[in-house]
Amino acid sequence: MAEDRSRKRAKVGEVEAASGDVVTLVESVDGKTCTHQCVWPEGARPTRQGPPPSIPSHKAAKEYEFKLDPFQYTSMNCMEQGESVMVAAHTSAGKTVVAEYAIAMALRDGQRVVYTSPLKALSNQKYRELSEKFSDVGLMTGDVTINENASCLVMTTEILRSMLYRGSEVAIEVAWIIFDEIHYLRDKERGVVWEETIILVPDTVHFVFLSATLPNAKEFAGWIAKIHKQPCHLVSTDYRPTPLQHFMFPAGASGLYMVVDEKSKFKPDNFQKAVATLSSTQREGELLRKEKHKRNQEDILKIVQLIMERRFDPCIIFAFSKKDCENLATKLTNLDLTTDDEKKLIGTIFENAVDCLSEEDKRLPQIRHLLPLLRQGIGIHHSGLLPILKEVVEVLFQEGLLKCLFATETFSTGLNMPAKTVVFVRPRKFDGGGFRWLSSGEYIQMSGRAGRRGLDDKGIVILMLDSKMEPAVARQMVQGSADPLVSAFHLSFNMILNLCRTDGGDPSALMRSSYRQHQTELALPALKKRAKELEERCKSVQIENEDEVEKDFEVLQKVGQLRAQRRQLFQDPSIALPFLQPGRLVKVLSEDALDMDRYLAAKEHAGADDDDEIERESKYVAETMIKASSGEGVLGCVVGCKRNGSRGYKLDALLLPEGDAEPKVTTVDLSRIESVSKVRIYLPKEGLKSLHARKKVLSTLREVEKRFNSVLPLLDPKGDMKLQGEMLDNLLSAEQALESEGARDWGELEGGIRLLCKKTLLKRLAELAKREEKLSRELVGHEELKARKKVLRKLHYLDSVGRVSSKGHLAAEISSADELVLTEMLVNGVFKNLPCPETISLLSCFVSSGNSKYNGKLSEEYDKLFKQLREQVSRVAKLANEASLGGIDMDKYLDAFSSQLMEATAAWARGSNFSTCLKLGGGAFEGSLVRAIRRIEELLQQLIKACQVVGEHDQAEHFSECSDKIKRDVVFAASLYL
């Protein structure tokens, strides 16, 4: 080991950074390269140049039988100097070795060390793993506490955060904290807990951060050096112990196409062949959704058979929904991938695992259905599984007994379970609003599971292709960089209250120390430079007779606005519908013209980087304005008008196509009706379904257009439509006043208007850059903090000088649910005299991850409880909006509370078996119900503590009784790792 550490380093240079001095070195041994950078706090000069001295072997905290990689021994040398380190390396590269050395070093020196993980399940696994290597290890997850006085404590980040706020002994005594999977900090919901915890840790503590590769890891290391006034080493490597080969499998194909080889070289010819194969088997839009789904299932069978034939197993097949995992796995029931001995061993492990369950729970459908699949060597892993089954699957996979595992994306986080092959069932995923391509970061995270160090000479990644993909998209996905580490910091009422009740606690100070503030400040120089460049470009735009062009521009805008107001008349169905009978001729405005303002706003925020881009946008905007102001549109014939759900009406129309294009009936929004003519034509009785009928109507349309020389007589708002009112009179008067201007040939003025658009756009972009620069100089979230404090004062959680009241102390203890709504319900006596089952059901609305818009019918008693909850939610939202807290969307806020599991959780509290409760769960998966009940128990513990803090001992006793009633059977079955 000493020899490994004393290898010669190659010093490649030093660079200066905003956060302090950065010493950059490169280690390279046996083709394995790592980059070592040390970021120092600003103003603190390095006490040495070059790498930390090597550790003599007789002082090493831990010896290894294998040769260490450069990034491993470099990280160890840094830690031995008592300095923090961030290790960024690919999955399976061996980051755990660094973490284990940090623990061994702390134990050797009689120090306490904390190992944090983002999930309770990962904490359980890490506890088991570390307990096999070290003697003095404890666990704290909220669910379980084992040996809390141990020198090495494994815990969730939430537990550590709570300890830091309480000033517990552990938080005071700890010398090292290991943050595993630090890239979890960018998680929208829980990433802020990591950031908050890192800030709250005393400056005397040193860190070990473990992460997948990050393009901005140095930025993160700079943040640590800045807020904790200590050097932070960044040790990163792109070396992958097992190289990857990337293949594509087009839908309906019979073979694989290598698109990236083990040297990371993209093969465009093979990619084109794969796309061509897809085109010949499945043209875009050719197959119905059901047929595509069926083909996907058939292709999965083909791929698994191919994997087994080529001995590419074990494989992980990533699907992006729980249902897909189960459906695809059940389609392989005819495959038998295990030997008789393996089947016997799988059965034994499974039976031993579920032996702790009652006979009734052993008969649960999920338990009975999974065992036959497991015996065949096929596994399923997703959040809807019972936790004990997920752990069985993990154990079997680690033992090499499962050859094919269907898993959701969460399996790629934290679990150290690589396979030889990784398969993606499709290149798109649903993100709530629609389907999108996988990002390169997501692809890297999941594909990183392919290739087992020491077992495989290469890892195999297979991307199933079910739709056309451009080479640039494929290349970016497969060869792009990992997602950067971006702060997800946001304020919460709980955070503010905890800081306000801590001696010397200041929310503003925490915000100033946030990674988000750090990233914002780093962007300042670029923003300042961009604002200056945009101003100079704006000044460089020369317009002949600029004053005259500006006047024309104003007239153009007024004409466009008046036409838009006229169109608004037709957006009211009560006005428009009587005149939109089938056969009525209308003029339809292009969507581009209508969306001009939205387009401009989007472009402002997206920014523009070069003159060519600005030129294109300016031309588009000028053309769009002229089109909107001149009333240009496409002649169309109304086919029918019908209701469009709750959104009003939709209009079906046959529009004049360009050139010889085939006439089609198109759905048109009422807002796109530019004008309605007095002319109606007759439509065929058989309708317009046939091409012959559509062509006949098209011929009539062209004849009408020709007869009226493209100027059809329009319905008069007063005379024909019988409309009246001051708004209409003003509109008609304004139109008349501008009639002469509106009749001008705006096309002749397009050049000048386009230049003015360019100048205006540059000016707007410069103003935006200046505004962003100004905001970057201010404290992130400053206005939000003021608004949140105002809400807390209105609700009497804080007094006028910022002291925390009794209500505030209650809310400060609640971190697993909406602290304000729950506290309001507590102080308003909602839980007093409420039986345990009803209490549990009410709490389920706070923690349920089920369908927020669940429409199942509730019994009268539960419906009444849910209405009480919604009243409190509405009250809190109203107060928040009065305090200008970003305009809370009432419907969205109410939807955050789901009634789906109210009856199921109440039944559980009454002692019903799990199977009965599941039937009341509105279609929830078994694992989802278990997770909800466990989260309720976690919330109950917080409520017990909260009530004790403010002296409400009767309430605390009630919540304790509720906890006792739900802690039983399969829901709280002990983890196999403990």
TrEMBL record:
Organism whose genome encodes this protein: Chloropicon primus
Family note: Belongs to the DExH box helicase family. SKI2 subfamily.
Positions of the Helicase C-terminal domain: 302-493
Pfam family, one: Helicase_C
Name used for this protein in its record: ATP-dependent RNA helicase
GO MF entries: ATP binding; hydrolase activity; RNA binding; RNA helicase activity
Segments forming domain Helicase ATP-binding: 76-232
Compartment(s): Nucleus
Main localization category: nucleus
